[in-house]
Records
---
Amino acid sequence: MSERVGQTLGVRLWPRTLPDGTLDLKSPFGGFMPELKRPGIFPFSLRGRLVAVDREEGTLQVEIRPNPRGRLQEAFRVTLWASLSLLEDLPPVGQGVYVQGEYRPKSRRLVAQVARGQPLWDDPA
């Protein structure tokens, strides 16, 4: 790691959120990734099953499930914040969804900016 002293490093995490939708800083796991293109901006993307949408609170919840080739042992849910327009354009609950957004360190929130339906590996053919 001495060759990385003074460099900006990004970290790839598989985070968990608390019930209030903030990032649980005690449970993430992951690894290093290439340097961020925009320092201070922490992008994320995820793919999972849409399990809840709360338009009043401005949140959606996605379940991330293990796949046969992965290292994940148990499913977990991530709560994301989103605009009302994004929430209204989501696929139906129960469908697969791909979400991109950014982590906001001050509020510890994952904020979805793009979401679209996407089939998952375990969807029936």
Note: The two ends are 45 Å apart (CA to CA).
---
Amino acid sequence: MMEYIIFSALFIVLHIISYYTAGAINYRFTKDIYTGEDSLSTYFLRDTSKKEEALRINKLLIPGQIIRGLLMSVVLYPLLGPLGELSFVLRFAFLGGIMLIYADFASAIPFCNTIEGLIYMKKRFVTRDIFLKIGSEAVIYSVLFGLLSSYFLF
């Protein structure tokens, strides 16, 4: 039981580090998508340039990421033994790939960088530029998480 608790706790920490790092890097190139009255996300995301919205997001961000990290870690419990037996490169490919594919591109949520988004969203939300800008954050997160988790979790 303790092995699972330690795994989840460390998983959560690595997830949060990867999430914040990818977000900080990517935000420098995508700020125009997320802030301002005429931003692309005006229709469906809170405007982080407004103080009250930014405060709300900051208040909920860490608890939300802890819950996400916990849920993602729990579904891996049955695979801990086999994952531990894989080489570093295979663990990286699996863990980074599962984050990139399952948690992002193949997600059932229609967004600017998912397959569902390409199907259901209006054309103005899924241009190549927007897809690459938002998708690059998922790539950065997945690579970083894959590297960190492959090294520290096993």
Note: Residues 113 and 134 are 6 Å apart (CA to CA).
---
Amino acid sequence: MSTQQRISACVVSVDPSTADVLRHQTLVVLEANHYYFEEILEFGPEAQHALSVIYRDAFAVLDTIGWRRPDDPPATVDVPFTAGFIEQLHRRRYDLGHTNIDRVQQETWDQTVVDRDREAAITLNRLLAKV
């Protein structure tokens, strides 16, 4: 039995504040794809594998940067980014840009949430420029 080899990843050094944004956005990627699992038995093997790759890539990032910020974080952490995970981050960046516009157009909106998402979008822009 042969084991399928992982797609190679590029490695990017990130600082603790970038790791915080990356951690949160990676969890959002996982949450955004969770509903596919409700129908996973109806998928063919290729689709099941494609879904598993999204989760494996996200878990690899979380395992590398940590599931929470350590009390004494290192100056940088080398994070592996696969092509598929980079695509997921591009989608998150796109979504962040649109949710900010949607929130500002609402009658009741929270400025702190909009500011947090804008900062996340800026951080993702910087990060995606490196990969």
Note: Residues 96 and 118 are 7 Å apart (CA to CA).
---
Amino acid sequence: MNARTARRKRIIRVRSVEHQMAEAHLARATGELASLVELSKRLEGLRTDLAMAKGAVAGRALNTIGELGMRLDMAKENLAAPLVNAGIRRDEAGMLAQSAMVKEESAVRLYERSRKSAEAEMERRSDANRPHRRRAMSLRLIEGGAA
């Protein structure tokens, strides 16, 4: 293996690690987004389950239900911005992971090309180092007769 091939092999290792890190960041961002979406659904479910009781209800109970509903609404509103930011981070992480994958694949192709080139060069050199064989005298045929 020549220096160029060894260098490209090291580049492949670096690109592979970069790709793995980008995939880990993408998984983390996707998990964070899924967690926020789940939290938003749970808040919405709690709000819909918070129903007024039929019949006579004490004023304190109505006040508590109203306050709890208001807090749930505020929590859902305050969750909107983090949801958007998490979606943006997930999209950016996805683009970085895609870019890292392309770079890794490119490095692999360059390495393969370099390896094949090095093998061809070694073969050429080994052919050049073979001793030259003298041929027995032979007749050369020239147009029109023997020389």
Note: The longest strand covers residues 141-142.
